[in-house]
Backbone:
C-alpha cells in the first residue's frame, strides 16, 4: 500500500472520531487542528513520511501540517527541497515498509525461511503460554486468523467460526481498542443465540498476535473462564500497546505488524468439569435474591489493572463520573475460609501461591481508595465474612489489591508493615508528556526515615533512565490536590503512609516545555491531573420520552464547559440545532425538574449537582424558539 493511502486512512479515521470538525478545511481554527492531533497522537508516529512522494506531501500532508511536530515538518520540508543532497534527519521516523513476495514457492521447496513468510506458528507454544491448571483436558484446538489491510480495518471485526469441544467459537478484534485508542482489544467468544438452556463450557485459552513473516515475534495473553449464554465473551480490552505493534520491542528483532498484516491465533483448551461447578466460584453468577446475603462481592485489582489505569487511585471501582476500571467482581461465599479463597485465587489468576499477598482497600476520609492492610497468614482459618467485618468499616463489599513478589535468589520475602516496621508500601506512577499518559509503574517498599531523593535512582532504573536523571516527584493526595515532594525531606516528614501514590516525570528544560506548549501538550503532572479531574461522563436523557422518541446517551465533557459548549456537542450527537436545545436538571431532594438558563459565563460544574459517585445527569428537549431569543 502506498504510504499516502495510509495517511489518507489515518486522517479520515481521525476526522470521523470528531464529527464536530468543519467539513471545509479552510474553516479550521488552531483548536480544530489540535483536536485532530490529539485523536491521532498514537497513529502519526507510525507513518513513513519520507516514503511519501513530493507531490503527495504538497497535496495531502501540507494541508494538515499543524498536526505534525514542528521538527518533523521541518525535516519533511528539507527532504522535499534537498532532492540530491544528503541531509541530517533529527526526527524519529519508522524505516520503509517491506513487501511480501507476490508468489509462493512450490510445496516441495519450502525452506525454513519460506515457512516463516507463509506464517506458521507451532501449536506447542500453547504449553509455553498457558499454565497447567491441573484439570483434565477434554479437547484442544487452535485457529489462526490472518489480518490484512490493517490501515483500512473497521472498528470491530470478527473471525470465521472454528470448532472446539463440539461448539463453535470466534475471535473478536478491535484494532483501535474498545474504550481506549492506545491499545488493541481481542476477545474469544461463542454464539449465545445458539446455546441451549443451561449451556456452559469451561475453557482455558490464549490469544496470540504475531508477525506472519516471523512467528517468533508474538505477544500473548491467557485466561480461563466458564462461558455461558449470559457470559459468552472474555478477553483483553488492553491486549497490547498500539504504538508498539509497528516497531521491534520486547526483545523482538521485527515488529508484530509488517506490510499492513498480522496473524491472530487462538489456542483453546476445553476443560472437563465432572462436578458441574468448576469456576462458578469466580464468576459474577446470578444468585437468587434469598441467597444473596450468603455471598460477599469481592473485587481484585492486579498489577496489570494498575498499570493500565488512566485516572486517580489504583483503579476506579464505582465512581460513575469517570470511566470505570475493568476490575473483575467475584461472588465469594462469606463462609469460605481465606485459605480456600487464596488457593482458588491462585488457580484463577495464574500466580504461584507463595508469591502473592492480598491487601485490603480502605475508603479514606478524603474520598480516595487505597490499599491499607495486608491479609497475613494467621488469617488462613478465618472466613471471608469475618475478615470483611474485622477490616472494613462498612462491609458491603471487599476490595483487594494483589501484591506479587518477585523471588530474590530463589526466595520470596514480604516486608513487615506494622507500626514497629520501618517499611511502607507505596505505588509509583509515571507521567509521559510525549504520549500524554500515566503509567502505573510498580509498587515499592520504602523506609520511613529515608529521604525522598533516595528513590530517584530506583525510579530512573524502572524507566531505563540514566541513574541521576533530574526528576520532578509529586504525591497524588486526592484528585484536586497534587503536591510536589521535597527531595531533602524524609518520607515520614512528607506524611507518606501505606497505600500512598507517588508520581514522577523527567524534569524538563525550557526548550522542552516550549516544544510541548507549541504542540498543545500538557507538560507537567499537576496540569495533567487537573485535566483528568475536569473530564467527566454526563448521561443525557430526553425530558419527555413519550413526546420525543430520542435516545439516551453519554458524552465525556469538561467541568468548565459553558452552556453553549455543551449544546454544541449534544447537537452533533442528535443532528439538531444547538440553539434550540433546552437542558433540565433534577433536584435530588425534591425530584423537581429545574430548567438551566443559558448564560455565557456559567460553567457546567455550577449548573448541576451530582451526588458523590453518581453520574451527572441532564435532561434535554428541543424547543421551537431559539434559546438566544428566549433569553432576550
Residues:
Amino acid at each position: 500500500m502506498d504510504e499516502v493511502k495510509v495517511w489518507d486512512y489515518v486522517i479520515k479515521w481521525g476526522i470521523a472520531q470528531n464529527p464536530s470538525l468543519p467539513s471545509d478545511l479552510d474553516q479550521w481554527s488552531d483548536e480544530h487542528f489540535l483536536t485532530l492531533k490529539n485523536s491521532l497522537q498514537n497513529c502519526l508516529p507510525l507513518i513513513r513520511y519520507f516514503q511519501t512522494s513530493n507531490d503527495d506531501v504538497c497535496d495531502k500532508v501540507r494541508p494538515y501540517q499543524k498536526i505534525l511536530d514542528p521538527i518533523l515538518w521541518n525535516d519533511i520540508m528539507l527532504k522535499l527541497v534537498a532532492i540530491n543532497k544528503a541531509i541530517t534527519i533529527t526526527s524519529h521516523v519508522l524505516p520503509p515498509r517491506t513487501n511480501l513476495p507476490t508468489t509462493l514457492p512450490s510445496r516441495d521447496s519450502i525452506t525454513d525461511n519460506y515457512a516463516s513468510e507463509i506464517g506458521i506458528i507451532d501449536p506447542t507454544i500453547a504449553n509455553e503460554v498457558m499454565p497447567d491448571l491441573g484439570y483434565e483436558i477434554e479437547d484442544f484446538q487452535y485457529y489462526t486468523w490472518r489480518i490484512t489491510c490493517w490501515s483500512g480495518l473497521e472498528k470491530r471485526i470478527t473471525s470465521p467460526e472454528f470448532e472446539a469441544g463440539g461448539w463453535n467459537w470466534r475471535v473478536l478484534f478491535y484494532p483501535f481498542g474498545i474504550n481506549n485508542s492506545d491499545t488493541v482489544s481481542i476477545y474469544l467468544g461463542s454464539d449465545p443465540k445458539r446455546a441451549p438452556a443451561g449451556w456452559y463450557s469451561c475453557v482455558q485459552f490464549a490469544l496470540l498476535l504475531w508477525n506472519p513473516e516471523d512467528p517468533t515475534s508474538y505477544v500473548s495473553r491467557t485466561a480461563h473462564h466458564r462461558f455461558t449464554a449470559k457470559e459468552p465473551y472474555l478477553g483483553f480490552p488492553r491486549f497490547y500497546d498500539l504504538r508498539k505493534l509497528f516497531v521491534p520491542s520486547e526483545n523482538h528483532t521485527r515488529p508484530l505488524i509488517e506490510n499492513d498484516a498480522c496473524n491472530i491465533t487462538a489456542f483453546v483448551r476445553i476443560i472437563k468439569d465432572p462436578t458441574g461447578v468448576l469456576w462458578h466460584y469466580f464468576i459474577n453468577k446470578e444468585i437468587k435474591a434469598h441467597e444473596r446475603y450468603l455471598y460477599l462481592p469481592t473485587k481484585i485489582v492486579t498489577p496489570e489493572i494498575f498499570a493500565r489505569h488512566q485516572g486517580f487511585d489504583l483503579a476506579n471501582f464505582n465512581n460513575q463520573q469517570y470511566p470505570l476500571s475493568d476490575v473483575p467482581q467475584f461472588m465469594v461465599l462469606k463462609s469460605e475460609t481465606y485459605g480456600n479463597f487464596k488457593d482458588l485465587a491462585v488457580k484463577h489468576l495464574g500466580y504461584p501461591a507463595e508469591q502473592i499477598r492480598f491487601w485490603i482497600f480502605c475508603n479514606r476520609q478524603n474520598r480516595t481508595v487505597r490499599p491499607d492492610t495486608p491479609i497475613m497468614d494467621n488469617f488462613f482459618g478465618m472466613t471471608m465474612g469475618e475478615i470483611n467485618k474485622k477490616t472494613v468499616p462498612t462491609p458491603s463489599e471487599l476490595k483487594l489489591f494483589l501484591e506479587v513478589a518477585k523471588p530474590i535468589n530463589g526466595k520470596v520475602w514480604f516486608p513487615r508493615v506494622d507500626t514497629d516496621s520501618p517499611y511502607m508500601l507505596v505505588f509509583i506512577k509515571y507521567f509521559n508528556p510525549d504520549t500524554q499518559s500515566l503509567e502505573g509503574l510498580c509498587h515499592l517498599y520504602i523506609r520511613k526515615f529515608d529521604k525522598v531523593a533516595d528513590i530517584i535512582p530506583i525510579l530512573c532504573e524502572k524507566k531505563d533512565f540514566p541513574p541521576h536523571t533530574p526528576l520532578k516527584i509529586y504525591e497524588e493526595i486526592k484528585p484536586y490536590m497534587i503536591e510536589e515532594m521535597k527531595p531533602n525531606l524524609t518520607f515520614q516528614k512528607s506524611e507518606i503512609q501505606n497505600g500512598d501514590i507517588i508520581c514522577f516525570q523527567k524534569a524538563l528544560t525550557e526548550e522542552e516545555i516550549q516544544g510541548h506548549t507549541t504542540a498543545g501538550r500538557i507538560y507537567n503532572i499537576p496540569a495533567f491531573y487537573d485535566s483528568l479531574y475536569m473530564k467527566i461522563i454526563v448521561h443525557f436523557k430526553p425530558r419527555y420520552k413519550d413526546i420525543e422518541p430520542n435516545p439516551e446517551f453519554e458524552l465525556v465533557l469538561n467541568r468548565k464547559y459553558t452552556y453553549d459548549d455543551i449544546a454544541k456537542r449534544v447537537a452533533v450527537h442528535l443532528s439538531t440545532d444547538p440553539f434550540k436545545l433546552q437542558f433540565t436538571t433534577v433536584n435530588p431532594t425534591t425530584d423537581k425538574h429545574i430548567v438551566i438558563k443559558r448564560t455565557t459565563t456559567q460553567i457546567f460544574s455550577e449548573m448541576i449537582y451530582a451526588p458523590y459517585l453518581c453520574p451527572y445527569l441532564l435532561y434535554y428537549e428541543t424547543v421551537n424558539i431559539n434559546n438566544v431569543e428566549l433569553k432576550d
Notes: Residues 100-119 have pLDDT under 50 and may be disordered.
